Amino acid sequence: MTKAHIGILAVQGGVREHERTLDQLGVIHRQVRRPEHLKGIDGLILPGGESTTMSRLLELGGLLEPLREALAGGLPAYGTCAGMILLANEALDHRADAQQLNALDITVRRNAFGRQVDSFEAELDFQGIEAPVPAVFIRAPWVERVGEGVEKLATVPAGPSEGAVVAVRQGNVLATSFHPEVTGDTRIHRYFLAMVQKSTARL
Ligand code: GLN
What we know:
The chain is an alpha/beta fold. Helices cover 25% and strands 33% of the residues. It has a single domain (5-201), classed as 3-Layer(aba) Sandwich (Rossmann fold). The longest helix has 16 residues, at 187-202. Bound molecules: glutamine. Glutamine binds at residues 48-51, 81-82, 85, 110-111, 138-139. The active site is at 81 (nucleophile), 179 (charge relay system), 181 (charge relay system). Keywords: Glutamine amidotransferase, Hydrolase, Lyase, Pyridoxal phosphate, Transferase.
């Protein structure tokens, strides 16, 4: 489908599910654990996991600044859940010493859906994708503020959290509160790969 080389940030979290999804799509990928692994990739996926731990490991491994630079330089990126939290400019209910990659002008709230609804599923209308997208939320964040130039791509359709923003895009950066990599539905990954393809074409 594509000749793009996709990196998957692999310091912690649900790396394998993204690898499996990319395998399914025939996309070349590699794990990004050290700064040198960023060399030559056309896009980066930041998986779900524990954003405080990921932030700490990025610092310890010397990946934080190289990642910030790559993103500031226009590297296409897709963050799921904890990955969304890392990409955001600001995260609420986060540890004071947690680091942000500042690649998305949004404010997210961690574990926003509350303890009672730790995990749930919903069918979402997703801007740019035709039929509803199945979405699995696991201790997910939501987006409380979007800056100028940030598109809202999906919101929670019903229930106590109706209207909560759960998918956004700003230029080359995509983020979802939920985990398409666990549903077997590859459309959001394909959406991201199309972004990567366009951005490569522009270089
Ligand atoms: N609650 C986690 C965090 O704040 C995110 C959960 C997930 O990635 N599934 O890092």
